[in-house]
Design a protein that fits this description.
The complex is a heterodimer of chains A (about 300) and B (about 90).
Chain A lengths: L14 H14 L4 E8 L5 E7 L8 E6 L6 H17 L4 H9 L1 E5 L4 H9 L52 H13 L2 E9 L3 E4 L11 H19 L4 E4 H4 L7 H8 L3 E7 L14 H21 L3
Parallel strand pairs in A: 3-4, 3-5, 5-8, 6-7
Antiparallel strand pairs in A: 1-2, 2-4, 6-8
Helix pairs in contact in A: 1-2, 2-9, 3-9, 6-9
Chain B lengths: L7 E6 L3 H11 L7 E4 L8 E5 L1 H13 L3 E6 L2 H17 L1
Antiparallel strand pairs in B: 1-3, 1-4, 2-3
The chains are: A alpha/beta (about 300), B alpha+beta (about 90).
Chain lengths: ~300, ~90
């Protein structure tokens, strides 16, 4: 018999193993955790979200996803550790208890399951979805260039063979469309958080343009507070800023869409490391990465709880 | 499972916009099969790129001939991938 106590959070897992663990968490912490299917991937794999909730009705909620770029394995692994952390600490940790007494959390640990499976079976370096591109032999769309925010602009490629191909149209990827539909149908998402790797950055909009968002000062303050929380555990330093100012112009990104949709607290994390291993972060660093990332996320979540809009 | 024997990841540091342009040109050369882990953006930020064994010499010559500084981040990608695989198998056996 399996339970979340036998799942090794310090190693990388197959999609099947992760999905099994979602069931274990929902079963073991049934009072606050439930599993929701929000759609199917291009290759018909389910898109599972864990809902953490202590109340009824459509409470204000926080969205958190990981693994939209499939090769960024530490993000899916960290998301699983974070799921266990939230579930097991409710009722024990006053901060998590207070969060869940006021907000729901929706966690999509594998936003691109086809790509993730492909990284395990065929090509560890795969980043995109696995959809077929009409008129091209090349497969896949960069799902973080496919959102309806400056779609097709600078920092995205129109070449289907490119790793940053934006796709034929915004929301063409069912993995993206499923999240968009879920967020719109929910109607009360207060924060949109997404995990990527690597570079140790904490970014807010915009990426498709270089003008600062209306809430630039507030987002910067929150971001710096979160970066301080991250640094407090193991000394890991994060750079904070808008996407355009910290990396480069990149259009069609998820947090630009969420912010323009009205979700003020929109942040993208780029987790460890700064390049020593890049996407191949050793498994020994999964738990430390997840621990420090959780501190940063918690800082943002507490702010969201205390500052509704 | 695709193998990456002899693939290297280089960290490239540019000094000016001119050198960045050269890297962006490199990005367009499909036959080199380069995989940019960190894309060329500004001279302040490094560029990380995975280079297949068959393109290594050409890319290094290109960089050196344009005076672009680089270092090797990962000597042989497959060595790290093999280690990652071993870790996973060991964990499953436990």
């Amino acid at each position: 018999e399996r339970s979340s106590s036998t799942f090794n959070y310090g190693t990388y897992h197959s999609l099947a193993s992760i999905y099994q663990e979602l069931d274990n968490l929902a079963s073991e912490y049934g009072n606050i955790v439930s599993k929701i299917q929000i759609g199917e991937s291009y290759e018909k794999r389910p898109l599972y979200v864990l809902k953490f909730s202590t109340g009824r009705g459509n409470r204000p909620a926080i969205w958190l996803d990981a693994g939209i770029h499939s090769r960024e394995w530490v993000t899916q692994a960290s998301a699983m550790w974070i799921a266990k952390k939230i579930a097991s600490d409710y009722g024990n940790d006053p901060s998590i208890t207070s969060l869940l007494n006021n907000l729901d959390i929706f966690l999509l640990p594998v936003a691109n399951p086809d790509g993730y499976e492909f990284t395990h079976t065929t090509n560890r370096m795969w980043r995109k979805t696995r959809s077929k591109n009409s008129g091209s032999l090349c497969i896949g769309v960069d799902p973080n260039r496919n959102w309806d925010a400056g779609f097709g602009g600078p920092g995205a490629s129109s070449n289907p063979c490119s790793d940053s191909y934006h796709g034929p149209r915004a929301n063409s990827e069912v993995e993206v469309k499923s999240v968009v539909d879920f967020i719109k149908n929910h109607g009360n998402i207060q924060a949109f958080l997404t995990l990527h790797s690597y570079s140790q950055l904490l970014m807010y909009p915009y990426g498709y343009k270089c003008t600062p968002p209306a809430d630039n000062a507030e987002l910067n303050t929150i971001g710096k507070a979160a970066a301080n929380s991250i640094r407090s555990l193991y000394g890991t330093t994060y750079t904070v800023g808008s996407i355009c100012s910290t990396i480069y112009q990149a259009s069609g990104g998820s947090i630009d869409w969420s912010y323009d949709y009205g979700i003020k607290y929109s942040f993208a994390f780029e987790l460890r490391d700064t390049g020593r291993y890049g996407f191949l972060l050793p498994a020994a660093q999964i738990i430390p990465t997840a621990e420090e990332t959780w501190l940063g996320l918690k800082t943002i979540m507490e702010y969201v709880r205390d500052n509704p809009y | 499972l695709e193998t990456f024997v002899g693939h290297q990841v280089l960290r490239i540091k540019t000094r000016n916009e001119e050198q960045l342009k050269k890297l962006r040109f490199l990005e367009t050369l499909d036959h080199l099969e380069l995989d940019f882990w960190l894309n060329p953006s500004t001279p302040a930020l490094p560029v990380d790129v995975r280079i297949p064994a068959h393109s290594l010499q050409a890319v290094k010559i290109f960089l050196e001939s344009h005076g672009i500084e680089y270092s090797i981040l990962i000597e042989d990608l497959q060595v790290i991938l093999d280690r990652e695989k071993q870790d996973i198998v060991a964990s499953q056996q436990m």
